[in-house]
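Weekly modeling sync, notes
Attendees: S.R. (lead), two postdocs, one rotation student

Agenda item 3: backlog of single-chain predictions. S.R. asked that every request posted to the team notebook include the full sequence so nobody has to chase files. The rotation student volunteered to paste the first one in as an example of the format we agreed on. Action items at the bottom.

Example entry:
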Amino acid sequence: MNTVEVNLGKRNSSIELLRIVAMVTIVYFHFHARDFSLYVLGNERIQEKGLFLHTVLHHLGMLGVPCFMFVSGYYGIKFRENRFVDITFQCLFYALLTFAGCYAFCGYRNIQQLFFFNNWWFVLAYVVIYMLSSGLNYIIEILSAKKMLIMIILFYFMMMGSMFNKAATTNGLMTLLAIYFMARWIKIYFNERQKTYLIFIAIGLLIMKFLGIVVAFKTTHLGLLPYLSSYDNPMNIVCVGGMIIAVERFYFSSRIINYFANSTLAVYLLSESQIGQMIFKKLFVPYEGVHYSIVYLAASLIIYIICVGVDKIRILLTANIMYKLTINKDK
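Predicted structure, as returned to the notebook:
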């Protein structure tokens, strides 16, 4: 979830806005999926009222996670020690906050909460890739376009196997690596005309994706749905890539958007922590005469703003502590 920079170091706020929208979508997706049991659907639920719309929203929400990794791959990750330290301390801060919150509100101490990488699979995989980014970028530089494409195809060949056989699972690291390499390949080797074609291809694949949902419901084969929504399905990554390329073309700069976008990682860490799930769940309550999708969207936006506020307090506290340590060291 790195900062995107274009035009001589100026951040493209259209991409930053996309990151905000993607994170709001992820918050929506997680709470929506848990509340309506959408991660696994059996055919016996086929007649359940509203299930089709739930499923469509669920599949849209699942595009949020690969969006972040595609952005990182498209613009490239450059390892910076201070950024690595900041990510690590963010995770530690929210792990400690979760541990303390669970004890304060629920009266129990769960040591596992301190092992923060167990709570956030995306962050673990991302941090590993971040640490390896210099080597990964070197590999990308020395490979030809053809060899890099073959490598990406092999990655997805392996990952597609994990969709059908769990014994072949490659976990989140392989998934994010494949997205990173695909995004870099498109960025380096696609010209503007090819990128335009990709946008239309992405639209076509998105239509096919939702036609697949219709087919799954019409034929009573809901087992098809996990394959359509999987992060290991390259169709979803192409959809995300086309969206990012399209958004990139609407360049503008906004300090306000950049300010809020800086805390997208914190929104993920806090909203998906155990204490965050417990507290924020209370926001997702039905209101008479208001469609549940509106309620969930409004709650997700509120959660984003709350998490940004908490993160800005964390930044101030960290800066104050570092300042005092520096003063004491100078003495």
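Discussion: group reviewed the output briefly. The two ends are 38 Å apart (CA to CA).
Action items: rotation student to repeat for the remaining queue; S.R. to check formatting next week.
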